[in-house]
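Known limitations

Files may contain more than one protein. Parsers should not assume a single record per file. Below, a two-record file is shown to illustrate correct handling: read the sequence, read the token line, then continue until end of file.
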Amino acid sequence: MAETKYNPPEGSTESTEKGKQHYRNRAKKLKRSKFLPNAKRFGKRNCFGRGVELDQAEYNYLVSILEAMSKQKDTEERQLIANNVMGQLKGKEIRTASNQVGSKVLENLLIYTGEETFTTLMDMFAENFRVFCCDAFASHVLQKMLHIAMLRAIAPLQTVQDEQEEDGSQSKKQKCGSSEWNEKSIWPCVEYSMKEQYSEEHRQKCRQFVERMAKFLMNNLEEFVWDDKANFVIRQCMLNLSGITEKKTVDGSESKHLTVPEQWQKLLQEFCTRLSSWPQFADLAQSEVTAVMLQDLLRAVAVTADAFQLEQLVAKLYKEVFRVLKKQKQEEQVEDDKQGGDSELPRLFVNESIVRLLEVCIVVAPAQFLKDKIFARLFRGHMKPLALSRACNFAVQKLIDHTSDKDMMDLIFGELEDSLEQLLRVGHSGVLLVLAKACVRLSCQQGKFVKQFLEALHCGEAAPEKMIMAVLYLLPVDVTPKSTPKIHLHGSLILQAILDFNKPIKFVTALLGMPNDRLAEILIDPRGSFIANAFVQSRFVGEKSREKLVRHLEGQYCQLALSVHGSRVVEIMYEAGNPAQRENIVRELAEQCAQLNNKPWSAKINKRLLVDTYKRDPARWRVAIKNDAKVGKMFSKLVKKRKIEN
């Protein structure tokens, strides 16, 4: 087959192309990381922050405090700094909060402020809610105070089990109680506020502050909803009333929220009822600011387990926003055809704010509503153009990712199966990834997916190495890229999903048929290394195939052990091999024992597999390994026993 030069098409999302918000997001990150140096530089130019103008002495004092905060890690010192600075700023809180630098300082000082000072601040904030809500910088301080008051109020309601689960998740992924500093706070907020001991009287005042704030916002909802500063405060309040502390964790399967009083859930219901009863409810979805507020309302209601209210809200959005726009599209169909315009996409998918709102509806909607209404009335018949659209393919991904019905999945796959090559050409490989994951999750369409996927890459009859590399690069075998390609993240994830199919024999055979040095290069790559996990953990890859892979990599284990990600593969292969193969791996590593200690990751392999011991005395190594295995079994039995007792 003749080779063709590969020119990434317009709209491609390859590494040479950047997303719509790429440069704006990068600029925001750089701006956050340079906040303190910029504050110092502007101070020297007699420019003392945006917002309310401060005098030079006040500004320099706040900059020095900001610098001290970034260096201080001791809890007692933080408390001392917070109380001392708040004492110095007494009577100037509103003025300071309305300044750019002052707002940043106060946001972080509030976290470690003592009971008496914090109570005084809550009273002062409550008397000036309107001022704080409508100011560009003071509104951020109000959001932080609302957040901290919520944490202090509900900390005793969290069970010991929840705390243990949260502690156990810290090493895997930083969540709501993260102790790491993030880009929003210089000092950690959630973990400290949840563990610090406060009097019952103080916790009650914090609870009253949250409720008073919520009632104030509801009474002024008509005014504040359209204000871009106050709108953020409303969103923060709704999320806090449901116990959500980190919005990013909501959409995932491991989302975690805190237990809140029943009264707070009633306040959230009232927020939902008032917004839903507005005559201009449909207009909220048209604007980016108000559409994001509706997204947060959906997230908040979803975690309260109030299925009835959630379905009512989703149904109202469907009826008054999504369905209305779909009908308008049908009415304009004839005019679009006359003008020769692009009439493939329904009108509701043209407005980006509405599309993002629809994505959240897909995530939180009940399964039956998703199938009968959202898919059947909005997506069906339009899956291909939506998947090929740069703005709408993420909605398609969410729809597929949350499909739990096989019949619905069959219909979706039927619309997309002939467009896999087009999706690869425009760079929408995420759609192929969620299709592969859905095939695994629902155990359907697996054979068709593999057939269509390989045809899209023109590698159905290709040699094993060419087929695997085409999948990992997501490039057809007859395409010559302009530069050396790298393993595509989605390509690796699709291959991992395929290895979990019911019949992955074609790919298992292809991996085992590759030269072992080429396979080792793939497993050294940070994206390719996880293929080893998928191969070993798959339910449908036989024991003999695992042992063949361990044997196939012999001669490459030293090279793997000397790389960061390859060293992890060595551990995986060691666990997957039989006793004889494990000894072969250690024997091979023992030949390069001196090099293993030069890198921390390979030194870990040396220590764990007792490579030094094997080099000195293989017989002693066999005894030591057996003893370690016995201790490991005893420990695992003890852990299981304690779990059963608890």
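...continuing to the second record:
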Amino acid sequence: MGYRVYVKLKKENKEFGMYPLCITTMEKELISGDGLNQGDIVQIDEAVQMYDSDTDYTLAIELANSGEAIGVFELHKDLIISKTNQKEVMAGQVYKDKATLKEVMKNYAIAQRFQFRVDRSNAVSYALICISEDCDWRFKASSINKSELFKVREFNDNHTCSLKDKVYEQRQASSSLISGIIRTKLTNHKRKYTPRDIIDDVKSDLGVDVSYMLAWRVKEKAMNFLRGEPADSYKKLPGYLYTMDKTYPGSHIRMEKSSKNEFMYVYISLYVFIRGFDHCRPIVVVDGSHLKSYYTGTFVSASTLDGAGHILPLAYGVIDSENDAAWTWFFEQFKIAYGVRENMCIVSDRNESIIKSVSRVYPDLPHCACIWHLWNNVYKKFKKSHAKLSEIYFSMAKAYTQTEFDSLMEKVEKVDIRVKEYLELAGYEKWARLYAPVNRGWTMTSNIAKSINAALVSASNRKEATQTYKTLEKKYQEMLELNETMCTRMTVVPSTEYLHTVNDGGRNYTVCLLERKCVCGRFQIDELPCPHAWAVLKSKFLMPEEYCSSYYKPSTIVMTYDVPVYPLPDKNDWNIPEHVAEEVVLPPK
């Protein structure tokens, strides 16, 4: 027992090996019951056995068989092999356990291009022979005094078999062995490492051909080792969600289970998202991405753009699939967290379940279509026409005036009248900025939902806003300056204090400063002075920034990220109540 404690301490603190291990032993007679005669205790001082005559190291390993004394030994960390990348194998080596020895021998067989089979294997012994029956290759190892340590007792490394017996498919290149080798390449969850990559790497590093199915199993085993079994993740959800709720008070975090305690949905809106949304245009983009994990499901998210055009996540979660019940539950949770704001709008693809769910939960809210997804539908239905219509369609979706929109639609009709009919049926108000019942700003697609994982909220965006010394964020400041350069040759004729006519190259435009409108459409849609409005502001010596949306100003961005996001505490510091820890969450079917 003293020896085992010594080894345990040395594993935890490598410097512990500097102290010698002294053991008082007993001589015992070989009598029934393995008993001892009273008075047989003796102190052994001289029994020191060298592990390797070529080194200065001694090892407390050569423990005696029955009746033999145990001497005074000193452990050295270099003598016990604990890593599976050991290249050289020889008699006398000591391995920390049988599992390490087995992995070393598999690697050795692959490197030497031969195969072995197990002759004997149990808790205290491990013997191998060559796969060829006539070969003299032998390997024997056994535990030291029934401990975890295994010592190589005999090793004949000379093969007497023919070459053809050595070049069969490598049985030793098992999924367990290879998963241990490629594990480090999967530690970064953002890295895409496919079974095809594994096949190429195993061929390059080990010179072994493996099947796609074996490579797939290798990746699964490595992922499970690094991140745990998929089913175990569901057991951890109650504690994880409880810790999030305590770390970020004011958040809206919910989980839904079936009557059999099987996981169904989870929803998360952190307080920082809820507070930040108050300072963003109320355009909510929702989308779903299918998960390729063992239990599948769909990752769903809601997000928006802050005043600087950065992605601000609003909510995220997992549902079983994109069905009516799941999306309805998601929107119900979203409504609890965010309520309803004036001029609020939902943007999504044309998924039928999303359309139904929005109409149920938000019956009075406009639901707009992502122009990119709508175009993909056009592409699939009318393939022959898509090349000519792509540029026309996107220009039409972003048109500022009725004249511009009608002109572009005429071009669509000439190319393919079926496309025009399809877009009419979809509803102009769903995809065309000109017809939108609310100002969608620059949020015309739901592609931002695809990038939610890359959104660096809080610190970086807040830092950018605080370091902006102009009156507008960079993107809108540049637009404002560009509009100013375009107004230099325009002439202004006032009609009233707020109403002006601007002549631009022979064409007249009416600008109303009170309503912040221009007949060109850009002033009211961009919420930024267009060139015509700029000309009027210059003539009246007014500051253009006063006529820009407050969403574009750095002070608003700072308020968007006013609440800091603290990291979750280390898992060892989680203080989870017993009733939460004992909650049963089973994986879905």
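Parsers that stop after the first record will miss the second one. For reference, the second record is described as follows. DSSP finds 20 helices and 17 strands in the chain.
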